[in-house]
Amino acid sequence: MQVLAIDDERIALEGLTDVIKKALPDAEVFSYRNALKALEEIDGKHIDIAFLDIEMRDINGLEFADHLKERFPKINVIFTTGYSEYVGEAMGLHASGYIMKPVTLEKMKKEIDDLRYPIAESETPKDVLRVQTFGSFEVFKNDKVLRFQYNKTKELFAYLVDRSGALITNGEILGVLWEDDANPEKKSSYLQNLRADMISTLTEAGFPDVIERKRGAIAVVPDSFQCDMYDWKKDREHAKVRYNGEYMNQYSWAEYSKGVLL
Question: What are phi and psi of 30, to 5 degrees?
Fold first, then answer.
């Protein structure tokens, strides 16, 4: 769900945004003090609910609501104002609601529970974990890079992805990630930190089911995320991304798998 909040008074906007996040904790909120700037920057988005002040310096909120309705015919416009005389005009615009300031959580929940255009749960896009293996290895949550605490955690996850769901023992991981170390077993404690970082990062990002753990071994669950290499193996002819001979370029151990893919 995407929500727009506009009020040209800084303190009022901060308070409005705070209440929205409490009422709709899963919503993506776009807050602006300048309505005309908002109109430019929301291009390409799908705004489900707009909370608009009416008396603003750059444009009247009622007029701005007209612009929003042209772009989003089924947008729910809820006016937030200290002036009761605009109720008639707001209802004439088929507004979803009208909140008299101060905006409280109770008032907002009442309006959200009675939206003019109910928002179907299916309209809220699900987060997607996408793994890129062709070229350099990278992990994305939707279109943003997912950051691990340690660079070595990323390599650990890359190796598990490379193994395509096979359970990998700690011993094998130590030998691969520290292949140039004469005594890789000394890295056992560090490996535990990497495992914990990987699992907590994925869980906090909303993907708790990506990793399968058994005593002394670990694996990825291939069906729990998108991966160019997996798609390529399933259907080379129709895969969205073509393999061009580059695979996890930053990891030397990936050379074997690279040869198998050719």
Answer: -110, 115
Contacts of 179 (CB under 8 A, 6+ apart): 252, 253
Classify burial at 182, counting beta carbons within 10 Å of its beta carbon; exposed 0-12, middle 13-18, buried 19 or more. exposed
- What is the per-residue DSSP string for 87-130? HHHHHHTT-SEEEESSP-HHHHHHHHTT-SS---GGGSPPP-EE
H or E element, residue 62: helix 61-71
pLDDT at 122 over 60: no
Q: What is the pTM of this model?
A: 0.56
Instruction: Say which residue the tokens 């009761």 belong to.
Output: 84
CB hemisphere CA count around 153 (13 angstroms): 17
pLDDT value of position 121: 54
Q: Hey, what domains does the chain have and what are their CATH numbers?
A: 2-123 (3.40.50.2300), 129-261 (1.10.10)
